[in-house]
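Trying the structure run again after the queue cleared.
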Amino acid sequence: MVIEKGKIIHSPLFTLRYLGDQPAVRFAAIMPKKIAKTAVARNTARRRVYAAIGEVLAKAASTKSGGKGRRGAHAVFVCKANIPISDMATMVSDIEALLKKVSVL
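Done. Tokens:
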């Protein structure tokens, strides 16, 4: 449903499709086969994206009052071609900027 009806925002590392005003915050990461040919490479990249999302949410929960007041959203991060070579700090800052733009943080 997010892919079909969601709004789209682009960044250097991701294309974010999201639906706002949802009861909870949920995330998914998609690594296209066009970018990483092997399943091992796709799964590794996906795990790195999930780790970066967890880092962003943990940082947001520690700075705010336990994450209260956060808008619910369902979001899908579609990885772009330079994800396999990007470092974790770049991914975290990119995800943080996207989530601030859609008012999830």
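DSSP finds three helices and four strands in the chain. Worth checking whether this holds up in the mutant runs.
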